[in-house]
Structure formats: structure tokens, C-alpha cells
Amino acid sequence: TSSRFKEGQNYQKIVPAQPTSAAEQVAPAFDDLMSPWTSARPMPRIMASSLVKTTLARAMLRAMADDPQRCAEMYNRAVASVPEARLVPLMIRDDYVELPLWRLRDDGTAGRMRAYDNDVESAIGEEPQSSIANRQSSIPALLPRALFMTALIRLGVCDLFIHATGGARYDRAMERWMRDWLGVEVAPMAVVSATLRLPL
Length: 200
Prior knowledge:
three-stranded antiparallel sheet; mainly alpha; disordered N terminus; globular; 45% helix
């Protein structure tokens, strides 16, 4: 073991406080990769768990809960309009409607489950969940799925969103979903992509 790992202060600099998600574990690696192009250290981060607690997200969740069938129908129509994105439509049944969110497991462990209209209704009736202890209550902790997440970002966070080629495909469905469901236009997007081959 190197001597620097034996010094508590230096060790704390190398191993950060316990991350609460895989995304928080990966984020410092992006800081290092982006260091030649940005002086912001650490780079600003917005986690999905924070995004879903914003007033914008809660207003959209309320709109979903008010008419889940229409939300899901508009989503499915938008998804069908971009078949090359291979997005999965939401389930619409007489007794429940799937919505574009993930429900975290009740014990807070890793893993996601589909979220339904009753999950959203329960979640918006309470304060957003912020801890594993809170997740053990009957109120579900929800995270946005891909289209809902980029809708939140392109409606409330940025003036221009930069996608790679895959995201640019599926976000065309999100743009149509937002127009058809809420009658709004999101911030424009640009596509930046490159192929880098290892010297093998």
C-alpha cells in the first residue's frame, strides 16, 4: 500500500464521501476527461433525483396524474413516429396506466420498476423523497425515464442541448410528445459525435 493511502487527509481527497448512486460514482471520471477543455472543477452536476424534485417536474407530474391516459397516448404516438429509436411504448389498461418514470425499490436498493398513475398520484401528494429511510414509507420514490428527463432539461435547464447520435434519434420523439401533450416547444438541440479508434 502506498504511504498516501495511510494518511487520512490524502485518502479523503482520493476517495470521496460515500456516493449515493452509480451516476455520482462516475461523475468524477467525467471531470478528469473534460479537464483539458473546461476550468470548472468539479463540473456542475444535476442528478435525476434532484431534477424530479423541481417545481417544473412536479407541475408535469401533476399534469400526468390529472389525465394519465392522454399523457401515455401522446407519448406512445410520439414513440411510434420514430421507430428507428426503438423506444418502448407505455402500457395503457383500464385499471392502470404506465407513465415515463422509474419507481425505485421500496428498500432503496438498486433496481428500477415501472411506475404507474397511482405511483405518481402518491408521490405528488407528499414532499419529494430524499433518503433511503424515506423510501421505506408507502410513498414511492420516482426518477424520470429518458424522454421525461430530456424534456425537463430542455424545458427548464438549457438554451441548447448537445446530444450524440443515439440521443438525437430518441429525442425527436420527446419533442413531438411535448408538442402533442403540453403544446410546448423545448430548447433546440445540436449533435456532436466522433469515432475514436484505439491503435490496435
